[in-house]
């Protein structure tokens, strides 16, 4: 196991696996994902863009897997989690909410708190 606090290691493993799994779900079935999260169907170029987003999520999971640059991995996942949470709030307020939208907001809010904690626990000299 890398020289990380155990809690940070576990958090990065869980978030990396969760984002990669979300990417795989989105890659396999963009329409189900869209319906559950946004309550809307997608078609045409929306399917292609969803699959590009899926590849990005898989890459995020790989890039943030715990390694020697844990501080960078935590910061990358934190940045993603906060921005997705804020965007989903805007989407939900606009009225385009599927059954899982607010759950996704809550999950990203919780993850953001845990990631902020992990960020502050990391030694500043860790590269």
What's the helix and strand layout?
Blueprint: H1 6-28, H2 30-38, H3 45-63, H4 70-93, H5 101-121
Explain this structure.
This protein is an all-alpha fold and 127 residues long. The chain has one domain (6-120). Helix content is 76%, strand content 0%. It contains five helices and no strands. Helix 1 crosses helix 2, helix 1 crosses helix 4 (70-93) and helix 1 (6-28) packs antiparallel against helix 5 (101-121). The mean pLDDT is 91.
Low-pLDDT runs of 5+ residues are none
- Taken from the alpha-carbon principal axes, the silhouette is globular
> In the residues, how many domains can be counted?
1
What is the number of strand segments? 0
Helical fraction = over 70%
Strand content: under 5%
The whole-number mean of residue pLDDT values reads 91
Cα-atom Rg, whole angstroms?
A: 15 Å
Main pleated-sheet profile: none
List keywords for this structure.
globular, 127 residues, 5 helices, mainly alpha
Outline:
With 127 residues, this protein is an all-alpha fold. Helices cover 76% and strands 0% of the residues. It has one domain (6-120).
């Amino acid at each position: 196991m890398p020289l990380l606090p155990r809690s940070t290691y576990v958090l990065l493993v869980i978030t990396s696996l969760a984002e990669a799994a979300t990417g795989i779900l989105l890659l396999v079935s963009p329409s189900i994902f869209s319906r559950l999260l946004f309550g809307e169907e997608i078609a045409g170029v929306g399917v292609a863009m969803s699959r590009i987003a899926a590849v990005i999520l898989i890459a995020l999971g790989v890039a943030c897997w715990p390694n020697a640059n844990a501080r960078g991995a935590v910061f990358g996942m934190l940045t993603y989690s906060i921005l997705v949470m804020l965007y989903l709030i805007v989407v939900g307020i606009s009225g385009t909410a599927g059954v899982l939208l607010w759950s996704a907001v809550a999950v990203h809010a919780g993850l953001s708190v845990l990631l902020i904690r992990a960020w502050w626990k990391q030694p500043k000299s860790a590269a």
